[in-house]
Amino acid sequence: MQCGPRTGRHMRLNHLKRRDFIALLGFAATWPLAARAQQPSMPLIGFLSSRSPDDTAHLVVAFRNGLAENGYVEGQNVAIEYRWALGQYDRLAAMAAELAGRPVAVLVATGGEPAALAAKAATSSIPIVFATGSDPVQLGLAASYNRPGGNATGINFMTSTMEAKRLGLLHELLPNAVAVAVLLNPNFPLAETQLRDLQEAARILRLEIHVLRANTDREIEIAFESIARQHITALAVTADPFFDTRREQLVALAARHMVPTMYQFREYATAGGLMSYGIDPLDAYRQVGDYAGRILKGAKPAELPLLQPTKFEFVINLKTAKALGIEVPPGLSARADEVIE
Fold first, then answer.
1. Pick the CATH number of 44-159+281-303 from 3.40.50.2300, 3.40.50.300, 3.50.50.60, 2.60.40.1930
2. Domain residues of the chain, as ranges?
3. Which residues is 315 bridged to in the sheet?
4. Mean pLDDT, residues 86-114 taken together
5. Lowest-confidence region among 36-50, 229-243, 322-336
């Protein structure tokens, strides 16, 4: 069958239209992918902690509050990847390196010196916001308080420098005590500094101290068994993220062995511990979140001054004191920021 000129031209036009239509469909199918690729992705924060998600849940809320002050809400306009060492400091280097290999805009290192030092070793270019328990300048994390320089800034919680203060408060509660045990984690970077501070404070207070070292659950149990066997009057738990991850275990063992114990954070006292003295960790973690938010908005770590806490808390659990048969001196309870009855 032969086609006339009009019919052949009509078929060719239909073929061209069909080909253009198919090409248009192909472009339409790929356009959303191209458009999405051009849209800016949500900034990512790497959150590295020496501690565990269970004992830090309330602090993460405070951190998010600090982010929110700068307009950032997790899951809406910022993403956060968490890594938890669970008190096992030897895991931090690999975790920090993994996060540094991700497209993180800010690397947040919490849970004291171990996480901060691991983050600093992992990257010299990604902005870091850290939280330490001692002087960041002495640790080599920053050049100075006013001008940190480099890629890291943060807050000094000062928890590791309050060992003498905590021992003094424990002595006020038990002025007739002649011997006090000290629980120390030998794997903590500041362990020897903490021990020197406690030994000097004990000399001034004319106290004998028994140093018990623990970095496992079983070693913590052995330490309390040693306290009971030697009839030691009281215990001071040093400031250490590892012990924070074992808070419930420590408080339970202190109750079982009837040992009056001093801790660093109020969470211990609210969980049933006798006394605590230290910073307000909620406010401190909020400040860490605030700095992370500022960096996301364009601030440079080198120009954000190092922070120090402004809120300190002395907490006494009178219910626990009564269970231990201890009468808290009125003057000491009057000085407490919070008394749990």
1. 3.40.50.2300
2. 1-39, 44-159+281-303, 161-279+312-340
3. 276, 338
4. 97
5. 36-50
Pairing between β-strand 106-110 and β-strand 79-84 as defined by DSSP bridges: unpaired
Q: Report the distance separating Cα 261 and Cα 162, nearest Å.
A: 15
Whether residue 313 has pLDDT greater than 90? yes
Confidence (pLDDT) at 29: 40
pLDDT on residue 41: 82
Q: What is the per-residue pLDDT for 253?
A: 98
Interstrand relation of 275-279 and 312-317 (parallel, antiparallel or unpaired): antiparallel
What's residue 161's pLDDT?
A: 87
pTM for the full predicted model: 0.85
Q: How far apart are CA 312 and CA 309, in angstroms?
A: 8
Report d(CA 168, CA 280) in Å as an integer: 20
Residue-wise pLDDT for 183-242, tens only, equals: 999 999 999 999 999 999 999 999 999 999 999 999 999 999 999 999 999 999 999 999
d(CA 211, CA 209): 6
Q: Helices 191-205 and 163-173, interaxial angle, to 10°? A: 40
Distance CA 164, CA 202 (A): 8
What is the per-residue pLDDT across 78-90, written as a single tens digit (0 to 9) for each? 999 999 999 999 9
* Cα Rg, the chain, nearest whole Å: 29
Q: Has residue 4 got a pLDDT over 80?
A: no
32: exposed, middle or buried (Cβ count in 10 Å: 0-12, 13-18, 19+): exposed
CATH of 161-279+312-340, one of 1.10.1040.10, 3.40.50.2300, 3.40.50.720, 3.40.50.1010: 3.40.50.2300
